[in-house]
Amino acid sequence: MLIGRLIGDEKRMKNEQGLLEGSIFKSLSMLAWPIIMANILQTAYQLIDTFWLGRLGANAVAAVSISFPILFLVLSLGAGLTLAGTVIVSQYKGASNQKMIDFSAGQTVALVLLVSSFLAVVGFFSARPLMVLIGAGPEILEDSVSYFQVSSWGFVFLFMFFVFQSLMRGIGNVLLPMYIVLGTVFLNLVLDPLFIFGYGSIPGYGVAGAAVASVITQGISAVVGLIILLGGKRGIRIKLRDMIPQWEWVKRLFSLGIPASLEQSSRAGAMTVMVMLVTSFGSNVVAAYGIGARILSLVIVPALGFAIATTTLVGQNIGAAKIKRAEKIGDLSSKIAFFGLTGVGLILFLLAEPLTRFFVPNDPQVIREGSKFIKIMAPSFGLLGVQQVLNGLFNGARFTQASMLISVFNMWIVRFPLAFILSYQTDLGFEGIWWSFPISNLFAAIVAFIYYKSGHWKVRTLRKRHLWLQQGIN
């Protein structure tokens, strides 16, 4: 047993050292594929919901579609803090400082727990006014409110698993979160139809049943994640004394996490106002938009996977003072994202109609408009990938403000104004909303790439690195 443990420790040390030297492609791939799989599995929650709810009709799909952007907005307010945990832990990992890895993890868990508890209470009691605000019609209002309220109780569980997942990714342990997500998705596959339609003595809750199933599986994943962190056998051990918030560390987490939260919340906010725009064209257009958005959320998974892998890899190499290698990581990630997602986009362009029909099989108008939305978006997926991985590089360099500004530019300066103008001021009508997606992807990718090549992020990183290391050690 002792020999096996020593061999396992030696293998793990070699894998971790490989993130700081050797083939960048191998390191990226080793980190990215489990993250991509975990994100695909997490997206499967939504796709499974959409599949079963589609059997209830277009209104059920529309009710979830209209509440999803608000859910994403609330979640994004705390999600940036989990990214801050990834960045800080990855850089201390690169600097080989286990004490600060454990302490940083404890502080992050405590802060995210407090934030998520607050958001759960606010989300539950503000569900109805929020749904009314974004324009939920009388045919979907009650379902959207009930779905949102039940989902709100899962914020604490969801955030706790997110922080576990982020901390594990920061030290390069990307397989364990994937296995946990895999198990919960299989469980959700069973629980979804059970709580939506009911069986035996278990009543069917309709649209709200999908949220009930998700909350149960999220709770299980959160408990498992916390047990692992407290056990300390997977590279991080959090102690109760490290979970007492310290003001200097709270400020540090917020300084990194708030821009990351604003980046995600700006996306969520833009998605929310976009839904408000879409609802003005009726429930069929909302359903078509919801299906297209679900496909987009699936397609963006590989980009996010490489972006998170880039964050971890860049963070560890900056912690080890390997700035040139960090830049090479950005170059390779951008190429992989552009060419890989362009190919995925072309495939989805060809499969747009059968994919839409899979979700809403009995509504020809929704099928027609949903497939058109996918076809218009699909060719720009490679550009979206470039923006995402460069944001990942900026995050790994502790420059989360750059990612925030690029996202704000994409969503608020280009996409939403363009969607409004094209849909209301031209003959395109609601199809103008569809066209705002590829155009904004193009502009955002150009801005991100130009800023990346300017090299300002490297100068800033060199200035800040010594300061944060000394603060952490002292």
Structure description:
This protein is mostly helical. It has one domain. The chain is built from 18 helices and no strands. The N terminus is likely disordered.
Topology record:
Blueprint (H helix, E strand, L loop, with lengths): L1 H17 L5 H31 L3 H37 L3 H28 L1 H7 L7 H12 L2 H16 L4 H23 L9 H25 L15 H33 L3 H37 L3 H28 L1 H8 L4 H14 L3 H16 L3 H26 L5 H24 L1 H18 L1
Helix pairs in contact: 2-8, 2-11, 3-4, 3-6, 3-7, 3-10, 3-11, 4-6, 4-7, 5-6, 6-9, 7-9, 8-9, 10-16, 11-12, 11-14, 11-15, 12-14, 12-15, 13-14, 14-17, 15-16, 15-17, 16-17
The number of domains is 1
Order of helices and strands: HHHHHHHHHHHHHHHHHH
**Tertiary shape:** globular
* Global mean pLDDT: 85
Helix percentage: over 70%
Largest sheet: number of strands, sense, barrel closure: none
Task: Pick out the low-confidence regions.
Answer: 1-16
Computed over alpha carbons, the radius of gyration is 22 Å
Sheet-strand content, in percent, reads under 5%
Q: What structural category arises from helix and sheet content?
A: mainly alpha
Topology, number of strands: 0
Distance between the termini: 38 Å
How many separate helices? Answer: 18
Describe this structure in a few short sentences:
With 474 residues, the protein is mainly α. It has 18 helices and no strands.
